[in-house]
Structures are given as structure tokens and as C-alpha cells.
């Protein structure tokens, strides 16, 4: 067990960034500009559209919801949102499959945005990607702020499975060379080339389903910021190790469930939205990232 670490205000910084962005909803239609394989299990999709020119405040690990067509090459209209955050779609279209992705890079001048897709045969995204062609239209909603680098932290601990690899990679690219980095990752060896180089990066490989166990061997010993992204149950267990055994202060931790075993992406999002609305109705501070983690994992 590690000794208690000094608290860093990562949660407060993340909340400030979320609050600052809250009124800037990106809701737009874009076309597929390019599709290319970038690793054995990952395909990069690049979108282009005039609406993407408004995305001028990119942050590492920014996440958005991609609305997929119900039939190959069919257009996807923009949703409207009710007062409880639920998307409404034209009756003639019905609800499309919606999946979250992480921004890999964006160019507001060119109106482009790229994201990486993990190959998962049989899923809604795989079905769309198999037939996707340049010029196909999709719609998207964003951005969710998932990371702000805390200068007070001398060490950044990243924890993730393959679903979070694009976010982990984006964060590593953004972190200054002076900061120590540890990435505890549950990945195939073929995925590792997607992790960018960093002069102080230590990569710890975890066997499938053992992120929490691998964390027990991580030495901290300095002010540390922690970011976790993975399957929801894996996040819950990893989060408990970070808080209870590594003794990281909750203000230094941010955790996100990227998917939930046994549940499709739409059901996972609906459950999260329901927890949010119940907490808001009860007068709780739903703008606090720490509260949202408690609702999801405790």
C-alpha cells in the first residue's frame, strides 16, 4: 500500500472547464472524408463539415456522441433535446444508435475532426463502419470535457482498457515532458503502437480484466492526478483501489465508464442520464464531477 498522497485540485479544474463550456453545445451534421486502418484493431474516421468549424476549444480526451444511420448511407438528422436532456428524433427516422467517441485531432479551419474506432464485430458501430463510404452523412453532439491537466500534480496515472486507448493517447500527447506518466492499460500488444512517445512514460500492461490488481503495484510517492476510463465494473474496482489502497484524494481522481458489459451503448447512456436527472431533482450539485462519479460507481 502506498502512503497518502498530497491532494491536487484536478476535480475543481475539470468542473471549471465544464462550466465554461456548458453553453457551447456542438450539434452538427458532417460527412465522412476518410476511413483508414491505423492499427490491427483500430480504424480512424475523419469527418468534415462546416459545423465543425465551431469546435475551437479542443481539449485532450474530449468526447462526443456520434449518431449512426439506421440504414447504409442513409442521412441522420439532428436531434432536439428536451428539458431532461433526452434526444428527440423525427418520427419518420426513429432513434438511431448513438455511440461515444474521443476526438483524436481536429482542425477548425478545415472543419475536420478525426476519431478512432475499436473493432468490435457485431456492434452497431462495426455494422456502420463496414459499409461507410466517403460522403456518407452522420450527426454528432459534443463536447464532453473529460480531462484537464493539473499543474500541481507531478505525476499523472492513466488507467484504461482498449475502449479508452484513444483518450489515453490524446492525454499523453498533451502532457508536458517534465511530468512523470504511468499508463496502466489492458490492451493487446497490437494496440500499443497507438500510444505516443513521452520521455517519462512508464507503461504497465494488465492482463484482461485485471486493471484493479495491476494498480496495486504502482508506486506514487508524489502529488498525483489519476484518470480512469474502461468498462464500468472495471472502473468501479479500479477506483476503489485508487481511493482505498493508493490513498489518492477524491479531488485528484476522475473516472468514466466507457461501456458496460451486457448493455448496449444506448441503454448505458440512458441509465446515466436517469441517475443525473434523479440527482438534479433531489437538489444535488450535478455540476460536480465528483458527485457524478459517486452516482455511477458507488
TrEMBL record:
InterPro entries: FAD-bd_FR_type, FNR_nucleotide-bd, Riboflavin_synthase-like_b-brl, SIP_FAD-bd, SIP_fam, SIP_rossman_dom. Residues 22-150 form the FAD-binding FR-type domain. One of its GO terms (molecular function) is oxidoreductase activity. Pfam families: FAD_binding_9, SIP. Coiled coil: none annotated. PANTHER family: FERRIC REDUCTASE, NADPH-DEPENDENT, NADPH-DEPENDENT FERRIC-CHELATE REDUCTASE. This is Siderophore-interacting protein. It comes from Conexibacter woesei (strain DSM 14684 / CCUG 47730 / CIP 108061 / JCM 11494 / NBRC 100937 / ID131577).
Amino acid at each position: 500500500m502506498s502512503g497518502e498522497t498530497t491532494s491536487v485540485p484536478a476535480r475543481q479544474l475539470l468542473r471549471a472547464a465544464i462550466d465554461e463550456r456548458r453553453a457551447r453545445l456542438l450539434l452538427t451534421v458532417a460527412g465522412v472524408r476518410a476511413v483508414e486502418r491505423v492499427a490491427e484493431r483500430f480504424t480512424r474516421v475523419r469527418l468534415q463539415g462546416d459545423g465543425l468549424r465551431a469546435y475551437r476549444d479542443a481539449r485532450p480526451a474530449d468526447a462526443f456522441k456520434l449518431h449512426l444511420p439506421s440504414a447504409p448511407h442513409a442521412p441522420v438528422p439532428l436531434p432536439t433535446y428536451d428539458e431532461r436532456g433526452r434526444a428527440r428524433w423525427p418520427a419518420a427516422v426513429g432513434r438511431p444508435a448513438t455511440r461515444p467517441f474521443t476526438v483524436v485531432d481536429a482542425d477548425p479551419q478545415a472543419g475536420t475532426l478525426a476519431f478512432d474506432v475499436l473493432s468490435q464485430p457485431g456492434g452497431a458501430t462495426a455494422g456502420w463502419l463496414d459499409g461507410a463510404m466517403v460522403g456518407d452523412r452522420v450527426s454528432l453532439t459534443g463536447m464532453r470535457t473529460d480531462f484537464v491537466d493539473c499543474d500541481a500534480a507531478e505525476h499523472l496515472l492513466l488507467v484504461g482498457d482498449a475502449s479508452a486507448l484513444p483518450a489515453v493517447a490524446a492525454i499523453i500527447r498533451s502532457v508536458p515532458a517534465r511530468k512523470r506518466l504511468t499508463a496502466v492499460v489492458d490492451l493487446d500488444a497490437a494496440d500499443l503502437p497507438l500510444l505516443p512517445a513521452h520521455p517519462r512514460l512508464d507503461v504497465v500492461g494488465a492482463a484482461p480484466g485485471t486493471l484493479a490488481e495491476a494498480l496495486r503495484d504502482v508506486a506514487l510517492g508524489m502529488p498525483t492526478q489519476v484518470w480512469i476510463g474502461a468498462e464500468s465494473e472495471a472502473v468501479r474496482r479500479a477506483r476503489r483501489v485508487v481511493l482505498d489502497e493508493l490513498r489518492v484524494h477524491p479531488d485528484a481522481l476522475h473516472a468514466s465508464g466507457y461501456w458496460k458489459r451486457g448493455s448496449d451503448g444506448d441503454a448505458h447512456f440512458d441509465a446515466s442520464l436517469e441517475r443525473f436527472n434523479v440527482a438534479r431533482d433531489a437538489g444535488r450539485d450535478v455540476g460536480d464531477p465528483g458527485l457524478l462519479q459517486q452516482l455511477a460507481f458507488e
